[in-house]
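> agent: user asked for a holo structure of the chain below bound to adenosine-5'-triphosphate. Plan: (1) validate sequence alphabet, (2) canonicalize SMILES, (3) run complex prediction with ligand conditioning, (4) return tokens. Step 1... ok. Step 2... ok. Step 3 dispatched.
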Amino acid sequence: MKYVNLSEIMTAKVISICNLKGGVGKTTLVMALAEYLAGDTMYKKRVLAIDLDPQSNLTSALMSEEVWEKEFNNRGLTLPFLFKNPEYFLEDAKNDSFIAKHNISNVRNRNYFSQLHLIPSSPRLFEIQEDLPSGYYSCNLKPVELLRTIIKPLLNNYDYILIDCAPTINTVVRSAFLASNACIIPCVPNRMSIHGLELLLEHIEKFNRVYVHNLKPVGTLISRYNRTMAQTENLNSIIVNPFYPPVFETKILERAKIAEGLELSNYLTYKQKYDDSHDSMVKLAKEFIQRVGR
Ligand SMILES: Nc1ncnc2c1ncn2[C@@H]1O[C@H](COP(=O)(O)OP(=O)(O)OP(=O)(O)O)[C@@H](O)[C@H]1O
Ligand SMILES: [Mg+2]
């Protein structure tokens, strides 16, 4: 008789989206994956997006400034405060008032989203991440362990937790690695993004050794592809390199509409927001589920 492990089925997959190169589309892809996984009728996944980047671009793409300021930032409920006052977040873990649960995203049919939640950030993380203590004695945790600790009681509430990482290696990014089962590396097929990918893979290998962890790079996601000859040559070199995580079949093209999508605007349908990349995003969500598991 085959036993099904229910806890395994119910537990969220935690995925970091990262590359050491900036501007490769990490935030855009977290936004799109979150919107399609939660909202597309085929998938209906329960998604929590976490903005771990002090630039806070994911936060401004998914939630209004007014709600962010009044309900989260002014109340000390954005991510930097997790690293400043972890005790409060840990005590509050059951109420999870640091999670924004309403009116996330400007996709018009968001009322049909099965669940799209956000842990918002704030630029204050820039200063806080520079001055982290070696440990928090009140809760006996190191900064690198905080995100994993805060996520743990939430794992049964979601199918996917997507973490938008800053293009750097520091304790805050390491805290995402420690909290994650897998990572996806967006890459524009150009030299510097490929360097960013390579360097990140080296860091992940070292990280897994030092922290006795198994963060698995499950895919390289080609982004902002403009099909020039130079980019196509670079793309082919990425595809054939056995040391890189396997390339997603779905490639995201360079499109003005996608760039506009990071600006939270009036309600839009998926097609208005993603234009001719809508079908690619649907396919990407499907491939994501196959790659990462349900
Ligand atoms: N497929 C695309 N087509 C056109 N523009 C894009 C595309 N993807 C992202 N962009 C634009 O490129 C810029 C960088 O994208 P994004 O912020 O998603 O990258 P990032 O990797 O998160 O950057 P950072 O490292 O600064 O966090 C943004 O202005 C965004 O709107
Ligand atoms: Mg970003």
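> agent: step 4 complete. Summary for user: Residues 22-28, 53, 55, 57, 167, 223-224, 252, 254-255, 258-259, 262 surround adenosine-5'-triphosphate (ligand 1) (CB under 6 Å). Residues 122 and 215 are 26 Å apart (CA to CA).
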